[in-house]
TrEMBL record:
Protein's name according to its UniProt entry: glycerophosphodiester phosphodiesterase
GP-PDE domain span: 185-530
PROSITE patterns for this protein: GP_PDE (PS51704)
MF GO annotations: glycerophosphodiester phosphodiesterase activity
Short name of any one Pfam family annotated for the protein: Phytase-like
GO cellular-component term (any): periplasmic space
Reactions mediated catalytically: a sn-glycero-3-phosphodiester + H2O = an alcohol + sn-glycerol 3-phosphate + H(+)
InterPro entries, sorted: GP_PDE_dom (IPR030395), Phytase-like_dom (IPR027372), PLC-like_Pdiesterase_TIM-brl (IPR017946)
Family affiliation: Belongs to the glycerophosphoryl diester phosphodiesterase family.
Catalytic EC class: hydrolase
Organism for this UniProt entry: Pegethrix bostrychoides GSE-TBD4-15B
C-alpha cells in the first residue's frame, strides 16, 4: 500500500445554493428545513471530471436520496473552482481553501426521448429532476456526456449542452448460470404448493402451477387394490382425517417400514374407493389448517390429468416429478410401485427421454431397474439423519443397501467416485440442501448441543450459521448429473441466521452455486427469484417497469451505476454497479462494457469487482490506463463509526477463476498524512469519515483528487456540524502507470472537454 499525503484542501460550505426554484419541500434534518427558498442546493457531489486545467465539472446526485422526496431538485453539472490550500514549497500557489462555483449544465429532455412520465413532462423544457433519475457517475466522451443512473439502472446520453440525445439505455442482464446445461433452474412444487395448501392435493398442485412451478411432485404409494396415489407416506394419520373416522378405527395397526416401527393407518390396507372417502389435512402445526377436510386424495393419473390440462390452459409445459416411496417395502407386500408407474406413464405418452418427467427415489436398486425399462430421466435422492454441531452430516444408508448388506452410505454415493456410478443409471441427484451448504450451531454452554440463539424455545436452522459450500454441485456436474436440492421453505425456522429471515437470499445463493432446480413448498418465491436471475434486463425497485408491475426487480434500491469510467482512447465506457444482481455472489459487482461506436453493451462482462464486505458500497470509478482503474470502496458509516474508506486499483487483465478482477489497495482515506495541517484541524493526519465519498479523478501519476458527497442536509461525518463538501488533492508515494492520455496532461487530447456549453447561472 502506498503512503498517502494531503497536498491540497478546499471546502464548499454545506449551505451553498445556485439560482433556481425552491427545493427540498418536506425535507428537515440537522436544523435545515425545506423548502430552501435560496434556490437549488449545490450538494451531494457524486462524480467529477476535468473542465479545464483550473476547474472541474462536479455532478450532484438526485438530491435528497429517493424518488419521493426529490421532484423539486434539478439535475445539473456544476463548474467548480477549488482554491486549494496547499504547501507552497511543493511548487504550486496556495489558495485560501475556498471553492467558487461557476456556471452549470442543466440536464433536460426537450425532444421527448424518455418513454415514461417525468416530473416536468408537461413543460416545454422538460428539465430533469431527482424524481426522474438518480445520476451518480459521468464521463465526457467525443459524442457528448454519458451518465450512469441508479433508478433504471440506465445509461443516459446528453449533448454538451445537457440535452438528452436518445432514450435511456437499459442494462442487459448478462447471466452466467453455472447449471449443467446453462439453462435456468427449474422450480419444482414440493408436494404442490404445500406451504399454502394441504400437501399432495389437486388444490396444492394447481396452486403450485399458478405460482410458476415448472414441475409438480407427487410422492407415490399404493392402495390395497394396486392404485398409485399421492401421499408423502403410506402411513396417513398425519395427512388425512382417517383418525377421526370411526368406520376405519379397526384399521389402526403397527408396522415396520424401512426398519422403523410406525403405528397408524396405512394406504395398503385401504381400497381406492375407501381412500376417496378421506380428506386431506395440514401436516405441520404451524401452517394454516383452514383447508382441512376440503380436498380428496388424488390418484397419480389425476395428477397427470391436471398437469396436462394446465399445460393447455397456460401454454407452458407442466412436468411431473413422481417419487417412489419405500420401494423395498412395497415389493415385500406384493405391491411393487415400478411396474404400475411405468404403465401409467406409457399410457399417457410420457415415457420418452424428452418427456416432461423425472422419477426419483431414495433407493438405488429400483432406479437401476427403472433405467432398464423406461427412458425418462431418473434422479437419485440423497438423505442424511441429521447435522452435527459443527455442520457435518450424520450419514445413513439407502434402505435397499441395508437389506442387501451393502455398507455404503449416502455420503459414499455423493463422493466423486460415487457420483460417477450414479451417472451410469440416473440423470441427476436430489440432495438435501445441507449437503450443498450446511449449518453449524453455537455451543456457548459447552453441553455439546447447539444453543437456542434467538430464544424462541426451539433449536433449528434459525439458530445456526452457514458453513462454506461443498463441492457437491461441481462434482455432480463433472459427472454429467443435474442437481435438484430439497427443500426450500419460507418459514424462519428453516432459514439459517445468515439469511436474516429472508428466504429469497437462500434461493439466490443456491442459484449462484449452480443448482439446476429446487424443490420448494413455496413455488411463488422460487419462481420470483429464478425469474429475477434470468430476466433480460437488470432493474432496480425504482425502474418504471417495476413500479408499474410489468417486471421484477433484480437489483437493490440505490445499487445502480455508481461508477462509470472511460478508456484512454475514449471509445468504450465501463459502468460499474454498486450492488449485486440476483444470481450473483453478494459481494460481486458487475463491470459492464459499452462500445460508443456501436452503441451497444458487450455480450460479456469485463468481470466482477469484489467487495471486501457485502455490506460495503463503491463510490466512484476512474481510469489509469487501458487495464487499470481506481475504485472507491467504503462502509456505510460516518464519524467515529466509519472504519472502511479506501481506494483500490483494479486490473481488468488479471482475473481469478470466478471472474473477479485483481485489486490492490492504493489509499486509506481514514489515514492520510497531513504534515502541514492543510485541513487546519491541528492534527498531522487527515481523515474522510464521511458516509459517502463519491468523487475520484487522477490528476497525474502520483496525484489524485477526492471529494465527498455530503448528502445535504443529512450527513454528519464531523459532528456536531453538518457535512460540507470537502475537495482534496492526495499525493501517492508510489506512482500509477498512467496512460499519457489520462489526467491533467491528457487534457489537450480531449477537445470535447472544452466544448461543453453550460447554462448561464442567472
Amino acid at each position: 500500500m502506498t503512503e498517502t499525503t494531503l497536498k491540497g484542501f478546499a471546502v464548499l460550505p454545506a449551505d451553498s445554493f445556485a439560482p433556481g426554484p425552491a427545493s427540498g419541500a418536506g425535507i428537515s434534518a440537522n436544523g435545515r428545513t425545506g423548502p430552501f427558498t435560496q434556490g437549488q442546493p449545490i450538494q451531494g457531489f457524486s462524480a467529477v471530471q476535468f473542465a479545464d486545467d483550473q476547474t472541474f465539472w462536479f455532478m450532484p446526485d438526485n438530491g435528497y436520496g429517493s424518488k419521493a422526496n426529490s421532484a423539486d431538485f434539478l439535475l445539473r453539472i456544476y463548474r467548480v473552482d477549488p482554491h486549494f490550500r496547499s504547501n507552497e514549497s511543493g511548487g504550486s500557489e496556495s489558495g485560501d481553501g475556498s471553492v467558487s462555483v461557476g456556471d452549470f449544465i442543466q440536464l433536460a429532455d426537450p425532444d421527448n426521448k424518455i418513454p415514461f412520465e417525468i416530473t416536468n413532462g408537461d413543460t416545454l423544457e422538460r428539465l430533469l429532476t431527482g424524481a426522474d433519475f438518480d445520476i451518480e457517475s459521468f464521463v465526457l466522451a467525443p459524442d457528448g456526456i454519458w451518465i450512469g443512473d441508479e433508478f433504471g439502472p440506465y445509461l443516459l446520453h446528453f449533448d454538451t449542452s445537457g440535452k438528452l440525445l436518445e432514450a435511456p439505455v437499459a442494462t442487459p442482464n448478462i447471466t452466467n448460470l453455472k447449471t449443467l446445461n446453462g439453462q435456468p433452474p427449474i422450480v419444482i412444487g414440493h408436494r404442490g404448493a404445500s406451504g399454502s395448501r394441504p400437501e399432495h392435493t389437486l388444490a396444492s398442485y394447481e396452486l403450485a402451477i399458478e405460482q410458476g412451478a415448472d414441475f409438480i411432485e407427487p410422492d407415490l404409494v399404493s392402495t390395497q387394490d394396486g392404485v398409485l396415489i399421492a401421499r408423502h407416506e403410506n402411513e396417513i394419520s398425519g395427512t388425512t382425517d382417517v383418525a377421526s373416522r370411526p368406520e376405519f378405527a379397526d384399521r389402526k395397526t403397527t408396522k415396520t417400514i424401512d426398519g422403523i416401527e410406525y403405528t397408524g393407518w396405512f394406504t395398503e390396507d385401504f381400497t381406492l374407493a375407501e381412500i376417496k372417502t378421506l380428506r386431506a389435512i395440514e401436516r405441520l402445526p404451524f401452517r394454516n389448517p383452514f383447508f382441512n377436510g376440503e380436498f380428496e386424495i388424488p390418484t397419480f393419473q389425476e395428477v397427470i390429468d391436471l398437469a396436462k390440462s394446465k399445460s393447455l390452459e397456460t401454454g407452458r409445459t407442466i412436468g411431473i416429478y413422481p417419487e417412489t416411496k419405500h420401494p423395498t417395502y412395497h415389493d415385500s407386500i406384493g405391491l411393487s410401485l415400478e411396474e404400475p408407474l411405468v404403465e401409467i406413464l406409457q399410457e399417457n405418452g410420457l415415457d420418452q427421454a424428452d418427456s416432461p418427467v423425472f422419477i426419483q427415489s431414495f433407493e438405488v436398486g429400483n432406479l437401476k431397474e427403472l433405467n432398464q425399462i423406461i427412458d425418462v430421466p431418473l434422479v437419485q435422492l440423497l438423505d442424511a439423519a441429521d447435522i452435527a454441531l459443527d455442520g457435518t452430516l450424520i450419514e445413513i444408508q439407502p434402505y435397499d443397501f441395508v437389506v442387501s448388506g451393502d455398507e455404503r452410505t449416502y455420503g459414499d454415493i455423493r463422493s466423486p467416485e460415487g457420483l460417477q456410478e450414479v451417472a451410469t443409471y440416473a440423470d441427476g441427484i436430489g440432495p438435501w440442501k445441507r449437503m450443498i451448504v450446511s449449518v453449524k450451531g453455537t455451543d456457548a454452554d459447552g453441553d455439546g448441543k447447539a444453543d437456542d440463539i434467538n430464544g424462541d424455545g426451539a433449536v433449528n436452522d434459525a439458530d445456526k450459521m452457514l458453513t462454506e459450500p461443498t463441492m457437491l454441485v461441481q462434482d455432480a456436474h463433472d459427472a454429467g448429473l443435474l442437481v435438484h436440492p430439497y427443500t426450500f421453505r419460507n418459514e424462519g425456522l428453516y432459514l439459517a441466521r445468515d439469511y436474516n429471515g429472508d428466504p429469497e437470499q437462500e434461493y439466490r445463493q443456491f442459484i449462484q452455486l449452480g443448482v439446476d432446480g429446487y424443490f420448494t413448498d413455496f413455488p411463488a418465491t422460487g419462481h420470483k427469484v429464478r425469474n429475477q436471475a434470468i430476466q433480460s434486463e437488470v432493474k432496480s425497485p425504482d425502474n418504471p417497469d417495476v413500479l408499474t408491475g410489468m417486471a421484477l426487480s433484480n437489483l437493490g434500491r440505490s445499487r445502480g451505476f455508481e461508477g462509470l469510467a472511460i478508456n484512454p482512447d475514449r471509445t468504450k465506457i465501463y459502468p460499474l454497479l454498486e450492488g449485486s444482481v440476483t444470481g450473483d455472489p453478494s459481494n460481486a459487482l458487475r463491470i459492464y462494457e459499452y462500445d460508443l461506436a456501436t452503441a451497444e453493451f458487450s455480450d460479456k462482462l469485463i468481470g466482477y469487482y469484489r467487495l471486501e464486505s457485502p455490506s460495503n458500497a463503491i463510490g466512484d470509478f476512474t481510469v489509469i490506463n487501458d487495464n487499470e482503474y481506481l475504485v472507491i470502496e467504503r462502509d456505510n458509516n460516518q464519524g467515529l463509526a466509519a472504519k472502511f474508506k479506501k481506494i483500490y486499483k483494479v486490473d481488468f487483465s488479471q482475473q481469478d477463476d470466478k471472474g473477479y478482477v485483481e485489486k490492490q489497495e492504493v489509499a486509506d482515506l481514514l489515514n492520510i498524512q497531513d504534515p502541514d495541517d492543510l485541513s487546519q484541524d491541528g492534527s498531522p493526519t487527515y481523515q474522510m469519515p464521511f458516509q459517502t465519498i463519491e468523487d475520484l479523478l487522477v490528476i497525474d501519476s502520483q496525484t489524485i483528487l477526492v471529494a465527498n458527497d455530503n448528502n445535504y442536509p443529512f450527513s454528519v461525518g464531523r459532528p456536531p456540524a453538518i457535512d460540507n463538501n470537502e475537495i482534496v488533492v492526495l499525493g501517492l508515494s508510489e506512482p500509477l502507470d498512467l496512460d499519457p492520455r489520462v489526467g491533467l496532461a491528457g487534457l489537450l487530447d480531449q477537445a470535447s472537454l472544452m466544448a461543453l456549453a453550460p447554462s448561464p447561472m442567472s
